[in-house]
Amino acid sequence: MERKAMKFDFLTDFCDAFIFIDFEYRIEFLNKAAETLLGTRFQEVEKKDLFDAFPGFFSNSLKKLFQESLSRECPEKLCFSSDQEKHYEAKICSCKSGFALFLTETAAPEKKEEDVEVKASWFHAIIKNSPAHIAYIDADKLVYKYANEKFLKAFGLSIDEILGRQIKDVIGQKNFEDAKTFLAEVKAGRAVSYVNTFSLVTGRKWIEVNYVPDVDSSGKVIGILVLSYDITEQKETEEKLKASEALYQDLVETSQDLILAVDADKKITFINHNSEKILGLTPDECTGSRVMDFCHPDDRQASVEWFNECIAEKKSRDLFENRLINAKTNEEITLAWACSFEYDDSGNFIRLNGIARDLTSMRLAERNYQTLFEKMLDGFALHEIILDDDGIPVDYRFLNVNPAFEKLTGLKNDLIRGKTLREILPDSENSWIELYGKVALTGEPAFFENYARQFDKYFEVTAFKTGEKQFACIFVDITSRKKAEKEREILESRLRQTQKLEAIGTLSGGIAHDFNNILAAIIGYTEIAQMKVEDDNQASLYLDQVLKAGNRAKKLVAQILAFSRQSEKSREPVNVNLLAKEVLLLLRASIPTTIEIKANLDVDCGLILANPTQIHQVLMNLCSNAAQAMEDQGGVLEIDLKRTEIDQLNQLAGLTVRPGTYICLSVSDNGSGIKKDHLDRIFDPYFTTKPVGKGSGLGLAVVHGIVQSHKGYISVKSEPGQGTTFELYFPMMKERIVIPEESVKPVLSGNGKERILIVDDDPNISELLKKRLQLLGYEATAKTCSKDAIEAFRTNPDAWDLMITDQTMPHLTGDQLSKEILKIRPDFPIIMCTGYSTKIDAQKAAEIGIKAFFLKPVDKDELAQSVRQLLDNR
Fold first, then answer.
1. If we measure between CA atoms, which residue out of 124, 164, 127, 128 comes closest to residue 144?
2. I want to staple 718 with a disulfide (CB 3.0 to 4.6 A). Which of 54, 115, 337, 674 is the partner?
3. How does the average pLDDT of the chain come out, rounded?
């Protein structure tokens, strides 16, 4: 209606009466003059039939004239008189939406000219002051014949500049092209209107243009009345409204939140597309349903109470959280609501508008976090850093700790929450505050291990920032691991020491093997030389000195082999108690009286299977070292002997001690002690801290070798200035072993006659043995290649009575050669002589079938006796 009134504003003042009806003759508009003329208000007859509304004024004969106007280019004219004997002239023209009827009251002939002049004056006044842009255009030439002030100002022209000017030159070629269709219609006698943009002095404007045809008495359109209105503000408002509506629609339909409207009956009147995702139903399926029907049963009562409370208190906005049920999946959805309430003028509730955000994942994460917080095995603590006025961290406050933290530290959450570190643990180091302050202020996480002396525990700590001036720590108790690492380091150190000693032993044994071969040649040829020289000869004296030196070298090699556990000495039951007493008697006479000797010897501790000379050597060595450690200041030398039961595997000196009964021999002193960096090397051969002439560095190495060769264990404990204790563990004999005495037959020089095969890859040794046996009367054949020896034997097995072989040889070792020989002659007597071997000893040799086993260099008498015994016992 407002739009329609705006269209016809000018017509209200332009003519005496104007009526617009549609093609069904329904009244669409009456101007004020028509209301006065017809004696009614437009609102009373709007949409009514023209002929039914005014039966006494308009006759049905006019209908024919209305229809004829549709096919004529010129308006139809009709003169008639009303019931009040007034004369009227009616002009009818058609347009796209209906008929325009112009009524003009005509006066008596004598007054007509006067009335025309008056009305013309009114017309010009109205046109001049009208708010519409009004112009009159010649219908044929389309040039301007008139324009009012409003029109001229809009285009920035004067009346002289526009009169006679083409329409296209004023409104522009593009606007003219757009107007051609409408100009054609108005020239056909139909009033038209359209909307377009025009470039005016004030800028680009939206203009509504109305073309009304001017028809002469013959019905020809002679002019076009132009009525234009600036509707820019209206169009901009419409565009803004459309944009706002589009934006609102986009926001509603693209939002990830649930948006709905609920009426006073709590029924859904609108809901966006998220209803399908959250409620499992389309918007159409939800519309009309009661919103509370979607609530979780446990939340429904609380939701209704909240809704009613908000309405009772006339709240305009409120927040709420509840759970809904998805109708399709039966899943619980947690929503956070922001709602607005609308009321009418009387304060009655009319509508709720709500927007809800899905918090299901967040609430689930919170529950999971709470479960993790309470159930996690590692300690967790949340803190707030405290800064001084300069922004320097000076303390931190406990905000929350989990049960695991309470268990690890003994600090209860209820007692420490809100308190600072200084209040709880005042002796804590500043370094932790500085470290955590850096985490809280920079956001850079930290990962480290530390020892908490307040709790006597090691922790692995991960610290990270959680918020403004806040940080959290995760504590993992690694105390057991750290202790295990320390124990492992000790054991690894001991194992390295043991492996080092074993490696040195292997090296020493290898050197001893080669040196034994050299000594065997030296001693053997010296002995042969002595046999060739008269006793009173000066050369015999020289040869005696060579033999003495050779035997001293032999003893030195024996010490090395003892260290490397390669020497084989005769073993017998030994009472360590008696040996210890004997050693103490010798020591008392040789050490200063400033050193006190204490003996705690268990006389019933039992026996060990050992070489008494070696055990005596061990005791003398350890006691001598202890005495030397105390010779300057004096002290106490203590020897303990006791039986010890080890009922499970134990770690001692890096070795696994098997369960069993052991005799523990302990030698201790309170002397200067041993430095820590020397402890790992004390058993190394030739390592010594004594000055030159005080020791060779072989003593403890030999002790270590002897103890291990007796299947025992040795450990040492020492601290600088606190003395040293050596503990030796020997397996105790379960039964007394009786060793039968062997009768020794005298070796008769030159009485041999059997054939002996000698195999040794060292030509000097093989030739030496050959000469020795030949001097004893034997027929000896020497081979330096084990393959040659086996081939010779296979060729004629009965050609030999005995074989003497080395162990370490190329092609076939001594044990391999012996096995091949024994395959041919199972009872064949074999003697093995070796300088060093890790693969064979007397026991293994016997298992193969070898009758005798010697370590080089072999004593000539022992060898001669063994050869004779084996040959006689065949």
1. 164
2. 674
3. 80
